[in-house]
Structure formats: C-alpha cells, structure tokens
C-alpha cells in the first residue's frame, strides 16, 4: 500500500484541528482575556529532547483557524532531526492568540514527532537488511491518518489505512469462511485488484496460502527457523510479513530472516511525547 502524502491530508488536518480547538477553547479562553486585546507578542517553541519532527502542518492549521494574524516561521521541516534546546518555530501576533493556541499546537507536534522519532529509531535497528517496517491500526481514535503520516516522517511505511482498502484475513475469518483457500478465493471475487493478505501460523498454512494465490502472507509468531524456511519456500511468489510479539531485542534477527515487511504496533501505540516548550516575549 502506498504511503500517505501530506498533500492528500488537507481536509483531515483541518478537521483534526477543529475538533482540538473546540475541545480546548470551547466558548472562549477566559484566561487570555486578562491580556489586552491589542497587545502583540512573539514566541519561540523549542524541543527539550532529541527527536524527529512531524506535524508542522497541524501547527499551522491551529493558528490559521484561531487567528489569521498569527505568523508562524518554521526553522525545521517534517522529517528533520533536532536536538535539545533547538528552536523549532517562531510565532508573531496577538498575545491572546499565541497563548490560546499554544496547547493544541504543541499537543499535535509532540505526539506526531514522538511517532516519527520512534519509527526512526526502529529503522536504525534494521538498517542494511532491506526490510520495510509497517505501522498497524493500533492508533489513537480520530488521529489515524495523522499518526500514519508521522510514521512516514520517521522512515517507516504504511500498512492498510483501515478495513476498507485491503484484505487482512485472520484466524477467525479463515474459520468462518471454511478454510484458507476459500477465504482467498472469496476475497478476490469481492474486490478484484485489492491486495489480499492472510495470516498463517504454520508452514502448512503457508503452503495453502501460496497455493491459493495470496499477495501477502503474515507470519504470525513463527519461530525463526520456520520464518527462514517460509522465505525459502515462498521464493518471491508472495510478500512475507513478520508480525506478533516483536520487540526491539528480536527485531533485527527477524529482519535478517529475509521477510519483506515487519509490522509493529508499538510505533503508534507505545510512544512518549516529545518534550516541547514555548517561550513568550512581549
């Protein structure tokens, strides 16, 4: 599946930001009313962590929707690596608006940069193996496309976006369909041209999936010897994806078996927000 492109996310970004501002600002920022409406200010946002940046468009949208008089001057771009105390962007405009938009803007940037940073770290662990690391559907509700875009900023790749754009036939689907061959055959009839991926738990099931013409075969918690054998048997007839119980300690060893992909839920699910700080000056 192709990676998400920022150019395709304009409507999604605007919707994300509208919800965030409604949630945070509601009927109005009563604390900001302490500041005279005409007062102008400048601000600088820095990072306190090493990180890979993602989410600049979400920050832009926060201030665009909140107050068009706010100017955002970026010092970095999505995908850039940054170091502690490095300035990320400067703001100029009404002091009220800078303070009202601060939390929503930083929430998007710290979370999406955390995803990109995690992905970049995992990519380093498998450098030189040729494997592609994939995200999963284990994302924050309502922010899937944002997180999946951030994954690409870290050098990883998108799996299917949802339940609609590709088949992923798992154990319960197979049981309900009556077997691996029946499930794959039905999938190809329902949506010709859609990728058909099926999960297998043994080499016998792998052989069945290959015979039925699966496009991608997910090797669910197979042992390392069985993964190597799966690569040998498949010999390019389908793409192979390692999945299930994969940790930092086992990631490279699995990559070295020769599988094409490894899917890792932790790159969107188990992240620590990047520590950011905004400094205001009048």
CATH superfamily caption of the largest domain: Aldolase class I
Q: Percentage of helical residues?
A: 40-55%
Number of DSSP helical runs: 10
- Please state how the strands of the largest beta sheet are arranged side by side: 6-11-10-9-8-7
Report the radius of gyration as a whole number of Å. Answer: 23 Å
Strand content: 15-25%
H/E element order: HEEHEEEHEHEHHEHEHEHEHE
* Count of the domains: 2
Termini Cα gap: 48 Å
Largest sheet: 6 strands, parallel
Under the CATH scheme, the architecture of the largest domain is: Alpha-Beta Barrel
CATH fold-level assignment of the largest domain: TIM Barrel
Task: Provide the structure class.
Answer: alpha/beta
Q: Which CATH class of the largest domain is shown?
A: Alpha Beta
* Unreliable segments of 5+ consecutive residues: none
Mean pLDDT: 97
Shape: elongated
Number of strands: 12
